[in-house]
Design a protein that fits this description.
The protein is of the alpha+beta class. About 15% of the residues lie in helices and about 30% in strands. A 14-stranded mixed sheet has the order 4-5-6-7-8-9-10-11-12-13-14-15-16-17, with no helix packed on it. Strands 25-24-27-28 form a 4-stranded antiparallel sheet. The N terminus is likely disordered.
């Protein structure tokens, strides 16, 4: 009896609502706005407005009926009186977001891109979807049509990378260190592989930042030990470092480390770098030290010339026409020297005694080599003196023959 009453109720409902085009078929599927059979339990043959008002609706949810894929100008989900703003379905696996009939965002299985045109997309912001760390060839944040340029997240540790044409150009790590042209930063805040150019560079040097301020010891001796070199970089073996090609000038870090270790630093890979700015103060002090020596030589020369005597810069008398007059002093070789050097000389006949005296540049006698023989050569060991510039004088029979300079490096 209940089944009969339910069937009658359905028939009556269908007849009474026939003008509203609500149709229920034998399978229980309901069709709205049509007597055609529904493909789903409920199917509306037309658009639908969702509003609490019977009229005067300014903006209410609206579903547009489409027989196929929708477009930016006919979005499926939109608003009353704003039918070109909403969400549309352009193809399988894709949804789009539109305003004023123009696609603004495109979401697919592999990426999300943002656009602002109804024309062909040449460069629109795009977000690539991934379930792992990204690479320089597949950055997460990129552009449509240029998807190997953008920002990627290569590894754990709060690192982001910047890529163009699929090549990493810059990365920033979790410590704020920046690497340009390289994936590594070493211990540097900014690490650049390649040539840099700027108009002006300043380095902080305020005394309030500093402590343990000291004078530089033996600056001239340090400079005399440094050897400038001409060389080319091995660009074929270190392509990732973007070295300049062709000949250039500089210092060898390993050699400089032996003289001024404060100007050399070793990175985490065991390679050395030079702080050329650290050499400037040493050069300044070396020039000042050398200038003192020059001024002393000028003073000695002026004294010699103004007195009208036959004295040289050490204040001793020159030989004048005695048996020592044929004695000769030669320049030491090698000069400069570090381990040893040889001073050659020639002694005249009938010499009673001959010596070579070594003075520092202030004229203080440092060492005397007495009783020179007639072999004509005196070998001096560099370990007997500190590095620096010295004068040596040949004295024959108590008379000064000649004075020359020699330089000792360490």
């Amino acid at each position: 009896m209940k089944k009969v009453l339910s069937f009658i109720s359905i028939i009556l409902a269908t007849v009474s609502l026939s003008n509203a085009q609500i149709f229920v078929n034998g399978s229980g599927s309901v069709s709205l706005y049509s007597t055609a059979g529904a493909m789903n339990p409920v199917q509306a043959f037309g658009s639908m407005l969702f509003s609490t008002a019977s009229s005067g609706t300014a903006s209410a949810a609206y579903i547009t009926a489409n027989a196929g894929y929708s477009t930016p100008t006919t979005p499926d989900y939109n608003w009353w009186y704003d039918s070109q703003t909403g969400i549309f379905h352009p193809s399988n696996g894709v949804i789009g977001f539109t305003t004023l009939g123009i696609e603004r965002m495109h979401v697919s299985a592999n990426s999300i891109y943002f656009t602002n045109t109804t024309q062909t997309i040449y460069s629109a912001p795009s977000v690539r979807t991934t379930n792992n760390y990204s690479t320089a060839t597949a950055p997460d944040y990129t552009w449509w049509g240029n998807d190997q340029t953008g920002i990627f997240h290569p590894t754990p540790g709060n690192i982001i990378g910047f890529t163009t044409a699929g090549v990493e150009r810059m990365r920033i790590n979790g410590s704020g260190q920046v690497a340009i042209g390289s994936a590594g930063t070493g211990s540097y805040t900014l690490y650049v592989s390649g040539t840099t150019w700027c108009t002006t560079a300043w380095s902080s040097s305020d005394i309030r930042y500093k402590k343990n301020i000291k004078s530089i010891d033996d600056p001239l001796a340090k400079i005399l030990k440094i050897n400038g070199k001409s060389y080319e970089y091995r660009t074929d073996e270190f392509k990732n470092l973007n070295f300049d090609k062709g000949a250039t000038f500089g210092l060898i870090a390993q050699e400089l480390k032996e003289v001024i270790p404060e100007a050399v630093k070793e990175d985490s890979n065991g390679y050395f770098a030079v702080n050329y700015n650290a050499i400037i103060p040493v050069l300044v002090e070396a020039i000042k030290e050398q200038q003192k020596q020059i001024e002393q030589l000028k003073t000695d020369l002026n004294t010699c010339c103004t007195t009208g005597s036959n004295q040289n810069i050490t204040g001793q008398s020159e030989i004048t026409g005695n048996s020592a007059g044929n004695s000769v002093l030669f320049q030491n070789n090698p000069n400069p020297f570090s381990e040893s050097t040889t001073i050659k000389y020639t002694l005249a006949d009938n010499i009673q005694n001959a010596s070579i005296l070594v003075f520092d540049m202030q004229g203080v006698l440092i060492k005397t080599y007495d009783n020179l023989d007639r072999s004509g050569a005196l070998k001096i060991n560099g370990g007997e003196f500190k590095a620096g510039m010295y004068m040596y004088t040949l004295v024959v029979n108590g008379k000064e023959i000649d004075t020359k300079r020699m330089i000792l490096t360490k």
